[in-house]
Amino acid sequence: MAKADPPPCPPLQDGAAVENVISQLNKTFPADGLLPIYVDPHRGTASYSTITFGAMGDSFYEYLLKVWIQGNRTSAVKHYREMWEKSMQGLLSLIRRTTPSSFAYICEKHGDSLSDKMDELACFAPGMLALGSSGYGPDDSKKFLSLAEELAWTCYNFYQSTPTKLAGENYLFHPGGDMNVGTSWNILRPETVESLFYLWRLTGNKTYQEWGWNIFQAFEKNSRIESGYVGLKDVNSGVKDNMMQSFFLAETLKYLYLLFSPPSVISFDEWVFNTEAHPLRIVTRHNRQSVWKSDEKLKPVARFHSRKEGRSG
Fold first, then answer.
1. Structural element, H or E, at residue 273
2. How far apart are CA 194 and CA 254, in angstroms?
3. Which uninterrupted H or E stretch holds 146?
4. 213 to each of 7, 103, 185, how far by Cα in Å?
């Protein structure tokens, strides 16, 4: 006798299982909006651990902004934007600048102490800041876009400061000096070119295309092999490893392609990228409605200033 199919799993009601996570975090959200990388899963309270916009901490801040955008900036997702803005005030408290060149960078925090270290992973932040700047009033919008541009310049110099013109995994900053490679491998990460893509789209400044092209040329020179691309064991010596990470194709090359594509290709008016560079459609989200109607005609609340072929003016 054939076995009957098991009953289907019941659908989530009102997205409670998903929304409860952010709701609980919001109840205990710190005044500066900065969460450590470990949170108690039972209480939703922060543990004593590192606060960073790099490894293990980055996507939380990115998704606060992007859920607000994907929900079409409606009141149903307003709390995501409010939490993100609080976190950006916290980010400002972590910004320091080097001497003599005044490179802006994002510190890590351990308890009450700051560490002058920044991961290349944190180079997603310039793109995030640029993307979120349009939701502020004129003064704050200008301030956060300017910070995005400063941080992008630092991240580009992560690449330019090494003999191979490829960035190390993280950088250290010392009094009286600009930057030094900490962990010296390069595994073809996408974060810097991701931010260059956002800044080009949102400002029309072709300098970001030039920087992206220089980074691509460095990959071609140092990482290209007959069967694909590989990372480097050391960005100073140029010694190769033997692995092409999946995100090089899925993210790094995708963002480089989009950096030289018209803004109409995956338009910011209709799409938002998740942290793995997958485009998700912007869908109006209403209060007490967990199912987003993907078949309705989409008209985002606010549109970005359009530019022909990414040119300003």
1. strand 271-273
2. 9
3. helix 138-160
4. 53, 21, 21
Amino acid symbol at 166? L
22-283 has CATH 1.50.10.10 classification: yes
80 with 290: CB under 8 angstroms? no
- Residue of 149, 169, 191, 194 marked catalytic: 169
**Identity of the residue numbered 270:** E
Annotated binding site for Ca(2+): 275
169 is known as an active-site residue: yes
* Annotated binding-site ranges: 275
Closest listed residue to residue 71, CA positions, set 19, 31, 110: 19
Partner residues linked to 224 by β-bridges:
229
CB atoms within 10 A of CB 268: 19
| Sign of the alpha-carbon dihedral angle for 214, 215, 216, 220 | positive
Domain ranges of the chain: 22-283
Q: Which residue has the tokens 């209480």?
A: 43
Q: What phi, psi does 9 have (nearest 5°)?
A: -65, 140
Strand partners, 271: 281
- pLDDT tens across the length of the chain (313 residues): 444 544 444 444 556 777 888 888 898 899 999 999 998 887 777 777 899 999 989 999 999 999 999 999 999 999 999 999 999 999 999 999 999 999 999 999 998 899 999 999 999 999 999 999 999 999 999 999 999 999 999 999 999 999 999 999 999 998 888 999 999 999 999 999 999 999 999 999 999 999 999 999 999 999 999 999 999 999 999 999 999 999 999 999 999 999 999 999 999 999 999 999 999 999 998 875 443 333 344 344 444 333 333 333 3
